[in-house]
Write a structure and sequence with these properties.
Largest sheet of chain B: 3 strands, antiparallel
Radius of gyration of chain B: 19 Å
Strand content of chain A: under 5%
Order of helices and strands of chain B: HEHHEEH
Number of helices of chain B: 4
Distance between the termini of chain A: 90 Å
Oligomer: heterodimer
Strand content of chain B: 5-15%
Largest interface: A-B, 29 and 21 residues
Number of strands of chain A: 0
Number of strands of chain B: 3
Number of helices of chain A: 9
Shape of chain A: elongated
Structural class of chain A: mainly alpha
Distance between the termini of chain B: 47 Å
Structural class of chain B: mainly alpha
Radius of gyration of chain A: 25 Å
Largest sheet of chain A: none
Strand order of the largest sheet of chain B: 1-3-2
């Protein structure tokens, strides 16, 4: 039974890869996040501590899994990774009858994703993208706000509140943490010192 | 009206603003449109504002759209009338100089027959 355990663990690993990617992607869309969480719960319920799948709710779980994976473009990458894992051990399907259905669905899903034959279930999310303006943003982190405070501290006192507000608002609009960090550092190291110089120079009387 | 140093980045910002001279835009919009870093765009805008080419105003609460409600207020910039004319002239001048400036580092082709 040792090979079966290995195969099971491989499948669980591949599912883990898929679900992690899905959950990460789904954070942008609350309705999909809810669906992903439900699928994740079902999925974890399908596996006993010994690694043997139970029969309950598999169809429903597969439906949810497929819905999420097909709808989200970024999930293609994850499903391709799943397919790579599964292709490397073609005898998985023979190893366990209990998981063959699940495996077949996952392989079909991965293949359809790889070939790009994705059905458009929800038009707005067909290509995995969403209008930047409609993605709910998290408020900027404390560190970013403090760094912005440092940057605005260089400016003349009358300008500080205006720019503090403008730049904090900018952090709300930037989609990724990397972009927010780049913007804050760019302002702190290059933008604010130059602006401070410009603004103080503007106040000096002309010679 | 004083004229800013027409660096390449300044020219890029001015060109972008001149695409729609009457339109108001905010800092991040200009950053995204020009592809320049935040720390480059804001000082240029501040410089152009200081010399009167741009005017600035803060967004009011009434202007906030529902999805932006409660967010920090933006600063909006717009070319002034004088600034529009001056920017066009400055860009034309910069473009004109581009072809006539001496090529540095002795890269100018030597006339034929020169040793």
């Amino acid at each position: 039974m040792a090979p079966l355990r290995i195969h099971d663990s491989m499948i669980m690993r591949s599912e883990d890869v898929l679900f992690r990617a899905l959950r990460h992607t789904c954070r942008q869309w609350p309705e999909l996040a809810k669906l992903a969480d439900l699928a994740w719960e079902d999925q974890t319920r399908c596996w006993t501590p010994g690694g043997v799948p139970t029969g309950g709710g598999r169809d429903e779980q597969l439906r949810k899994l497929r819905t999420i994976a097909v709808v989200l473009g970024p999930a293609r990458t994850a499903t391709c990774r799943v397919a790579e894992l599964l292709d490397s051990s073609s005898d998985i399907e023979r190893a366990s009858d209990g998981i063959s259905e699940l495996l077949e669905e996952m392989i079909n899903l991965a293949e359809s994703a790889r070939n790009g034959n994705l059905r458009v279930l929800w038009p707005g999310l067909a290509d995995g993208r969403q209008d930047v303006q409609t993605i709910p943003r998290r408020p900027p982190g404390r560190a970013a706000v403090r760094l912005l405070g440092l940057a605005t501290g260089l400016l003349p006192a009358s300008e500080r509140p205006l720019y503090q507000e403008d730049w904090t608002g900018m952090l709300y609009d930037l989609p990724t943490r990397r972009k927010r960090a780049a913007a804050v550092l760019s302002l702190l190291l290059a933008g604010a010192p130059q602006m401070a110089w410009e603004m103080r120079r503007a106040r000096q009387p002309d010679a | 009206m004083p004229k800013p140093r027409m660096t390449l980045q300044t020219q890029i910002v001015l060109r972008q603003a001149l695409l729609e001279p009457t339109r108001e835009w905010y800092g991040l919009e200009m950053v995204n449109a020009t592809g320049l870093p935040t720390g480059t765009v804001y000082p240029i805008v501040a410089r152009l504002e200081r010399i009167g080419w741009f005017e600035r105003r803060q967004e009011s609460l009434a202007e906030q759209t529902p999805e932006r409600f409660g967010r920090p207020l933006r600063l909006y910039y717009k070319l002034t009338d004088d600034g529009t004319q001056a920017a066009r002239l400055a860009l034309a001048e910069a473009h004109q100089h581009r072809g006539t400036d001496p090529i540095p580092w002795g890269l100018l082709p030597r006339p034929s027959g020169a040793t």
